[in-house]
Amino acid sequence: MRCSEPLQALKLNPLTLTLLFFLFSAASQAAEVFVKSSGKVEGERVYLSDVAKIEGSPVEVEVLKRIVVSESPQPCRSKTLSKREIAGKIASYLRENKVSFKEIRVKGAPFVKVERSCTVAGGERIRELVGEFLKRNYPDVILISLPSPTLRLPVGKFKDEVSLDSMGRGYARFVYKVYSDGKLLKKLWITARIDRKVKVAVAKVPIPRGTLIRPEMVEIRELPSLKARGAPSELKEVVGKVAVRDLLAGEPIKERYLRPNFIVKRGMPVKVVYDSGAVHIELLGVALENGAAGNIIKVKNLSTGKILRCRVEKDGSVTFLSE
User: Fold this and answer.
1) Which of 16, 38, 174, 212 is most deeply packed, by most CB within 10 A?
2) What is the tens place of the pLDDT at every residue in 194-230?
3) What's the rounded Cα separation, in Å, for the pair 35 and 87?
4) pTM
5) Range 269-320 classified under CATH 2.30.30.760
6) Quick one: pLDDT at residue 323?
């Protein structure tokens, strides 16, 4: 079907685009190209067979179906080609390759929407893989934030994986790789914000402001260190103290939310006790400072006006400590 004679005529009309090519020896029938309204491609090029149904002799069909009518859109994208544009591509190909047909009729839809198939990788899949990796290898690490870019791949099937590149205080750098048929398609470095779990005292039940904290009200739990910052790691550091604000169940009990349980308060009268061997003395004083059991406070002796250094006892009295 090759001929040295150049293209002689190209006739186009709104209903049917007809390409006429004259041969030295006439072909038996006209080939017909029926443009579809839509088509899908997988590779980098759009062939006539992707966007049209072709009828004619086996040789004619074989020639026509291999004609490239456009570059493919990006994976997961689409583009629109007109029937006129497709007819022009056919004419250019035949002219450049000195191929002649008796007649080619281009019919069908005025436009065809070409979609390029693809597979979407990344996105939530990255978060899932990183989460599994941390759970398996670093159970004390908590994922705070992680970029999750979406990748559009021109393949049907793929395998992906993550590995740890580096880890520091507050961050972890991962490598995300995507493979198809054993070939590496994409490789991304992704930096995540992380935190570590710590054991701290938390409220087991709601604790109203002003409540003396008892052992059954609190427990030790694992929380992110950023959330737990300032909270004691042992229950003995919170039991017996008073909440200075309302505490919710599960909330870390930070030191600034507590004050000592002052048995003795500034300005209140107190019994001052002095014991030294056989000598036992009791006198009346006034507390100059707040004091919980075991605290050392200053107390004023009402009879002499002297300032005494005393230890607060659980019963509300104070014991004079000799100089």
Assistant:
1) 174
2) 999 999 999 999 999 999 999 999 999 999 999 999 9
3) 10
4) 0.56
5) yes
6) 67
